[in-house]
Amino acid sequence: MDRDLVEQARRGDREAFTVLVHQVSDVLYAVAFRILRDPGLAEDALQNALVLAWRRIPKLRDDDRFEAWVHRILVHACYDESKRARRWTATVRVLPVSGPSTPDGSDAVANRDELERAFARLPIDQRAVFVLHHYLGLPLVEVAELLEIPAGTARSRLHYAIAGLRDALTAEPESIVQGGRLA
Amino acid sequence: MNDDRSVERTARSWIETGPTQAPDRAVERALLTIESTPQERDLRIPRRLTMLSIQARVAAAAVIGVLVVGGALIYLGRGDQSNVGVPSPSAAPPSSPNPAASLSLSSGYANVKGWIVFEHFGQAPDGSTTTYDHDLRQIWLVHADGTNLHELASGNPVGKTSPDLSPDGKTVVFASWEPSSRIWQASIDGGDATLIDMPCDAPVGAACKLDDPAYSPDGEKIAFVRNQLLGTRMSSEIAIFDPASRETRVIESTLATDGNLAQPSWSPDGLQLAYHHDTQAGPEDRPTKIRIEIVNVDGTDLHELPASAGEAKAGDPDWSPDGSLMVFSTMPNREGEGDENGSPGIFTIHPDGTGLTDVCGSCLQGGIAPSWTPDGEHILFWGFRTWAMMDPDGNNMAHINQQELVWFGEKLGYGYAAWLQPTP
């Protein structure tokens, strides 16, 4: 990341910030999509995060931490989008979960579907830790610093995310659906 | 897929799939919104500037208004005596100490002999630059009577901060503000600044920033602040550099995610360092606790000085020449967190933590960056838009030069954190 661009943007240079936007938007969107699992919500989170970053960048204390800082803003934008999405999806009926692996060799597809559903059932803060750690490749210590949470909390969120995925993937399909909505 | 490891492995592989490019429309929408979105800018200056209450600003505006009107009347009444007051913005920059750039005199401590060395940002105090830039830090010198105003080492580095006078009064050591944070030295008599090549464990630049140099009482060592990134950890250190041996000794250190160490100040016997320590909850957070700590130069006997009361902040430490007292501010001009840094105020305290005394009261509506005069008879501090002095017990408090009320402000920038060097 070009420190000079960050400095210029901090001083109000929109052109410099535009360059920064083009440098970071792909990875921000990729992270947002993976946390939210919805392209529309991810677009909204990206847009909100970029606008908020522009508004708040004069308060950035360390230019060298721009990337971590903007990722933190994005994660919080994802939290907000998730809350908004829940209000909409609360009444959406979920289709019955697919049955066990089919004998036609589509295990991988079935696993992906199961993971998709299982991941969507995780709390948003666990999803964020999982994505930052396993998609961005950040060590848990850095994930903790980025999210401003204790390292132990980051570790436990990752642990519960894995456990949640495991439980969902090993549970009987019927138990996942309760009354037409996610348990 | 029923154990955690295989689940994690599978999920890690799965999370890789998916889009890796932001849709153009999302980016364009964001940029369109940004075009009409203002930034959130604090009115306060980001660093090293006191903030005053609304009432104080209103009062100051009233005072300035009276001065302007009064000045205009005096000006009209004096006819041809027009070389008084605010320097012309179009004046040519002085290349050396420039008596023509002198400022008007008044009462108070205007007759104190010696150089005031001060940090300044914004437009040059002599009007030679018209760009108002928080980051264009400069170091200037002026006599207390307002004469011989000139910039120290006006060339590189372009941004200068944290000046400290050598004990013999011949040189000033300072940190560069831009383009990178390093330590420099310049002669008080003029000439270019020279870089003091202090070592970093991390590459100098973004990964290693040096700041707040302070000469030891014998002038042979320099205490300084080193913030450096080692691995994924940024540390904030108080260290001592010996130019003769090129050895650097870290005296105290903390993780920058937990807080920052700053403003080392030597005890007169050279055996202890006082410094400012702020603690924060996270790397981007405002400090939650700001205090002064004292430690022996061998790293032993670290202790914290009590603050004035409750949640009061403490910084800007300076030892009296005889070592019996320290003076500090409750609104440290370090990492200007504005109002969250506390209220302006100046206290003295014995180095053992006893005898805490409020010596300033209203501090003439200022009250930051106090420093002892070399004879120990006065405390110099930043009042409102100019400097003031007082006795160590707070008596005889007065602006050095009232006319300098028109010198600093949002149009001509701010000068503060001054030190007095008596002229032999």
Read across the widest sheet of chain A, the strand sequence of neighbours is 1-2
What is the β-strand count of chain B?
A: 24
Overall structural class of chain A, as computed from helix and strand content, comes to: mainly alpha
Greatest interface: A-B, 55 and 46 residues
Give average pLDDT of chain A, whole number: 77
Q: Could you list the spans of chain A in which at least 5 consecutive residues all have pLDDT below 50?
A: 86-106, 172-183
Write the layout of secondary structure elements.
The complex is a heterodimer of chains A (183) and B (424).
Chain A: H1 3-10, H2 14-36, H3 39-56, H4 66-89, H5 107-121, H6 124-134, H7 140-147, H8 151-170, H9 173-176, E1 177-178, E2 181-182
Antiparallel strand pairs in A: 1-2
Chain B: H1 4-16, H2 24-35, H3 54-78, E1 115-121, E2 138-143, E3 150-151, E4 159-165, E5 171-178, E6 183-187, E7 194-196, E8 208-215, E9 222-230, E10 233-242, E11 247-255, E12 259-266, E13 272-280, E14 287-296, E15 303-304, E16 315-319, E17 326-329, E18 346-349, E19 357-358, E20 368-372, E21 379-382, E22 387-390, E23 398-399, E24 414-421
Explain what this protein looks like in three dimensions:
The complex is a heterodimer of chains A (183) and B (424). Chain A has 183 residues and is mostly helical. Chain A contains 9 helices and 2 strands, in the order αααααααααββ. Chain A has helices at residues 3-10, 14-36, 39-56, 66-89, 107-121, 124-134, 140-147, 151-170, 173-176; strands spanning 177-178, 181-182. Chain A has a two-stranded antiparallel sheet with strand order 1-2. In chain A, strand 1 and strand 2 form a beta hairpin. In chain A, helix 2 (14-36) crosses helix 4, helix 2 crosses helix 6 (124-134) and helix 7 (140-147) packs across helix 8 (151-170). The longest helix of chain A is centred in the middle third of the chain and has 24 residues, at 66-89. Chain A starts with a helix and ends with a strand. Mean pLDDT of chain A is 77; it is low at 86-106 and 172-183. Chain B is mainly beta and 424 residues long. In chain B, the strands form 6 sheets. Chain B has a 4-stranded antiparallel beta sheet with strand order 3-2-1-24, with no helix packed on it. Chain B has a 4-stranded antiparallel beta sheet with strand order 4-5-6-7, with no helix packed on it. A 4-stranded antiparallel beta sheet of chain B has the order 8-9-10-11, with no helix packed on it. In chain B, a hairpin with a 6-residue loop joins strand 16 and strand 17. Chains A and B meet through helix 2, helix 3, helix 5, helix 6 and helix 7 of A and helix 1 and helix 2 of B.
